Amino acid sequence: MKQTTGNTTRKGLTRSLDRRGTRSDMSPPVAQKQRPPKDPSVCDVCGSIYTAKTWRRNRALPANLINAAAWTICPACKQAKSGEYFGRVLVRGSNASSNLQAIRARIANVERRAEFTQPERRIVSSKWDGATLEVLTTSQKLAHRIARELQKAFGGRARYNWSDQDGALTAVWEA
Ligand SMILES: [Zn+2]
C-alpha cells in the first residue's frame, strides 16, 4: 500500500520533469553548459573531480592522473559565484518561524548529502526576512528535495511550481 502511494507520487513528478524535457530549446538547467571539460579535470575552487562525464566531490584522483588533470572551475562554483539559480524554496508559516533553527540545520544537512554525490547541486543563498525563509539553489532538484525533506521532518505542506520560462522550480513549504 505504502509503495503504491510512493510510486504514484514519483510518477507525477517524473511526468512534469518529462514535460519540461520535451521543450526543444532547453536542456536541463544544470546540464546545459558549454563544452564538457577535459577528462580528468579538477575544480580549482572546491576540489571536485570531473571524470566519466560527472563531477564528484571527495573522489580521489589516481596519482598517475594528477599531472594529466586540467584545472578548471566546476559548473556549480561558476553558478554559485554568479548567483544564478534554478531552484527556490520559500519557507513560511508560524510553525516554521518558531522552528527556524532546526529547519536551517535540516536544509544544510540536505545540501551536504546532495553535495557529496552531486557537487553541482548547491545552495546559492539563504535569507530570512522575518516572515519567509528564501533559499536559492543551483538546481531545481535540490530545491525539490529540500521541500520534500522539510515536509517529511516537520509536517506542513509543500507545493511545487515549475516555471514555463526556464524550468526553474519554486517550492513553497508551509508549516
Ligand atoms: Zn567547484
Shape: elongated
What topology, given as strand order, has the largest sheet? Answer: 6-7-5-9-8
What is the residue-averaged pLDDT? 81
Enter the CATH topology name of the largest domain. Answer: Gyrase A, domain 2
Cα distance spanning the termini: 26 Å
Give the helix tally: 6
Number of strands: 9
- Alpha carbon gyration radius: 18 Å
What is the H-and-E element order?
HEEEHEHEHHEEHEE
| Helix/strand/pairing category | alpha+beta
Bound molecule kinds, no repeats: zinc ion
Largest sheet, if any?
5 strands, mixed
CATH class of the largest domain: Alpha Beta
Number of domains: 2
Low-confidence stretches: 1-27
Beta-strand content: 15-25%
| Helix percentage | 40-55%
Q: How does this model look, in words?
A:
Helix content is 40%, strand content 23%. It is an alpha+beta fold and 175 residues long. The chain has 2 domains: 41-79, no CATH class; 83-174, Gyrase A, domain 2, CATH 3.30.1360. The strands form 2 sheets. Strands 6-7-5-9-8 form a 5-stranded mixed β-sheet. A 4-stranded mixed β-sheet has the order 3-2-1-4. The longest helix has 20 residues, at 2-21. The model is unreliable at 1-27 (pLDDT under 50). The structure holds zinc ion. Residues 43, 45-46, 48, 74, 76-77 line the site of zinc ion.
